Amino acid sequence: MKRKLHELAHARAGDKGDTLTLALICYREGDYPLLREHVTAQAVKRHLGHLVQGEVRRYEVPNLHALQFVCERALDTGVTTSLAIDPHGKTLSYALLEMVIDA
Amino acid sequence: MILASRGELDYLILECLAERTIALAQLRKLAEPAAGYDPLLETRLRALLPLAVRHGFRIVTNMGAADPLGAARKLMSLAKELGLRIKVAALSGDDVLAQLAPSMRTIEARGAPLADYGTLVSANAYFGAEEMLPALATGAEVIITGRVADPSLFVAPLVHAFRWQVTDWDRLGRATAIGHLLECAGQVTGGYYAEPGLKDVPNLAQLGFPWCDVDADGNGVLGKVAGTGGAITLRTVKEQLLYEVTDPGGYITPDVVADFTTVSLRELGADRVAVQGASGRPRTSTYKVSVGYRAGFVGEGEISYAGARAVERARLAGEIVRERLRDDVPDLRIDLIGIDSAHHSDFGHAHAPYEVRLRIAARAATRELAERVGAEVEALWINGPAGGGGVRRYAQERIGVVSLLLDRSRVRPQVTLLQEDRETQAA
């Protein structure tokens, strides 16, 4: 069954220089293994496409039933020098939640 | 103000410095020497100082920005005007611009030397709790700093009040988790969180700010004043605990390398969440230094199209401007607001909106060239596709920010105590 992450999890974006962080947090704790299996670093990198120029690292945070994605070179050189309309990437949590998994 | 009046606080922390704010403050200071501290200092402290004296809480803030001592002097004259007798302690020494060399390597992805970054305007080391302790020990009602790591503003009063060792890594780790949760204020009480229907937050317009009641082991309970808007739930706390964290198991501050993967959260009741069990490892031997440099200019222009073929007209307009600026301002970005401006994609939600807004932004070496971007967008009124209107244009200098690491021994924190008409150096 195809499911959009928006049904399963909430997300928050943060910025550090040219690095974007995306926290993905399960609504139901029981969904954590499902997300851990399907929302890999490679799958997120593929989904976000050219929004992320560098690598995507994933950290598992089981105590919060969350996955933390750290995306390098994702903010067009950084908040203060970016040409993007959203230089902090604050809207990008919702780009992650558009991802569809087959689970 | 509600938190200050009714929060029964011991310490009120005002965290007001974003990554680039201090570089902008440095620029203001160059233009006008008395303008190096936060421009809202007077307004905010005029309201808060009487409350601090009446309710007996101390204020800790990084609103000193590029001029903590100047800010402290301003507060002394403000207190005099308000008829309040207070002491103010200023922490300075974070300005390390004079110690930088062009060959120093930045810690950004490619590790390029500083020499690659044009004219430097500021360099500030992130101080931690330990540097603030002499200021807290003076008994001053207000402690004002320049660059201090955001969580450390919250960690320092805890180390001071509970007399923790600055090598008590687990307690520092727990306090850091709490500081990190509090440092963006409304972001843990339902701000940056709400989504109608799925993540509802009551009365967001009157969003309450958080307090935390912390025990001697560094565990705490988050709450907010009854009757204020917002919500504190496991979900809001989880989102904020991971906000801007690039390694949840190794969150580096000047005080400690904190581990948030051992945190446990428990909902105790409405708008009460217990935060326990973060841990910590020894701090690093360096200070992170945030360096501001002149990064040229950015010009922007926007124009709207509505009705039949609005998207096609906007795309045509964008290509016209790209062509007209090709020689002078080639580093240019074209967005259609309403289609793909925020995410470069519509992730399959293809649709034909009734109206769309074209936005063009470009980097330029000079203000004059940056101004041309908006000028060309404005010219679309007359020399572009049909029915373009609502032009807005901007041109701004940009300050870039890069970071490097500096050995702790090369930086000298200084605390100055201001009381009555005297200024003295604290130990």
Descriptive notes:
The complex is a heterodimer of chains A (103) and B (427). In chain A, a hairpin with a 2-residue loop joins strand 2 (9-16) and strand 3. Chain A is an alpha+beta fold and 103 residues long. Chain A has helices spanning 5-8, 32-38, 41-48, 92-96, and strands at 2-4, 9-16, 19-26, 56-61, 66-71, 100-102. Chain A is 23% helix and 33% strand. The model of chain A has no long low-confidence stretch (mean pLDDT 97). Chain B is α+β, with helices and mostly antiparallel strands. Chain B folds into two domains: 2-96 and 124-289 and 410-425, no CATH class; 291-404, 2-Layer Sandwich (Alpha-Beta Plaits). Chain B has ten helices and 18 strands. Chain B has helices at 2-6, 21-31, 41-55, 68-82, 129-137, 150-162, 169-182, 234-242, 310-324, 367-383, and strands at 11-14, 58-61, 88-92, 120-125, 142-145, 210-214, 220-224, 251-252, 257-259, 264-269, 272-276, 279-281, 286-306, 332-337, 355-364, 389-407, 414-419, 422-426. In chain B, strands 1-2-5-3-17-18 form a six-stranded mixed sheet, sandwiched between helices. In chain B, strands 4, 13, 14, 15 and 16 form a five-stranded antiparallel sheet that branches. A four-stranded antiparallel sheet of chain B has the order 6-7-11-10. In chain B, a hairpin with a 2-residue loop joins strand 17 and strand 18. The longest helix of chain B has 17 residues, at 367-383. Chain B is globular and about 70 Å long. The two termini of chain B are 33 Å apart. The mean pLDDT of chain B is 96. At the A-B interface, strand 2, strand 3, strand 5 and helix 4 of A face helix 8, strand 14, strand 15 and strand 16 of B.
